[in-house]
Amino acid sequence: MASYPVPVFLMGTRSTKSMPPDATPTIAVIVPTFNERGNPGPLVEQVTAALGTAPFRLVFADDSTDGTTREIDTLARSNPTVGLNHSPSRRGLARAVVEVLDHVTESVVVVMDGDLQHPPSVVPGLIAGVEAGADVVVASRYVRGGRELGLRGPWRRLVSRESSRVARIVLPPARRTTDPLSGFFAFRRSILVGTTLQPIGFKILLEVLVRGRVRRVVDVPYTFDRRARAASKASALEGVRFLRHLLRLRAT
């Protein structure tokens, strides 16, 4: 398998250096991926259409082993808004996001999955919430107007809801949103300056809520869509990592 530089951030005409002081905040969209072959191209197209002329770059935090990395590299070579940060060994989705966060300079950061279950059409609403004064804007399945179509079967839906409930019981900062385990959210990058994130597993939003300088959190409803391609990364091991993560944050 070919090796890829780490990190590779490809910037083009939408560089933050060309932005006037009173312009719309610059945007970094971070997409953690693990074996999402076939999804990166449609995702880039949909995010680009959703954000229009807004200044942004989309960085894939990729741990894939199935050819996804090559797809992203091809996209990055032809599209100046696309960047790639690839690790040859899987670190976990949350840690992949943190590695990219250490390098971004944009004022607003959006985190979303690469499996197309997070609709790019929701991204402008998340950014608008930050521009309106929120520190964190969470795309929530559980606020009025939100729906959950992507989890198969009543058991998976029950586990998801109960995990969210446990997080809100154990971690007071998690009570500021109806969906503390959401992987789809936006935040003001300045709330993490000087902060060290130490995630385990998937749940990066918990890290932001507990360790960040967060004053205001807003929920935006969205429909967690059905998976278009690839397979779910959920497993019993991820459940164990989630519990370890809760305990670590509880001790913070």
Tell me the layout of helices and strands.
Layout: E1 27-33, H1 40-51, E2 56-62, H2 68-78, E3 82-86, H3 93-101, E4 108-111, H4 123-131, E5 136-140, E6 147-148, H5 153-170, E7 185-188, H6 204-211, E8 217-221, E9 223-224, H7 236-250
Parallel strand pairs: 1-2, 1-4, 2-3, 5-8, 6-9
Antiparallel strand pairs: 4-7, 5-7
Describe the overall structure.
The chain is of the alpha/beta class and 252 residues long. The chain contains 7 helices and 9 strands. The strands form 2 sheets. A 7-stranded mixed β-sheet has the order 3-2-1-4-7-5-8, sandwiched between helices. A two-stranded parallel sheet has the order 6-9. The radius of gyration is 17 Å and the shape is globular.
Concise description?
The radius of gyration is 17 Å and the shape is globular. It has helices at 40-51, 68-78, 93-101, 123-131, 153-170, 204-211, 236-250, and strands at 27-33, 56-62, 82-86, 108-111, 136-140, 147-148, 185-188, 217-221, 223-224. It contains seven helices and nine strands; from the N terminus they run βαβαβαβαββαβαββα.
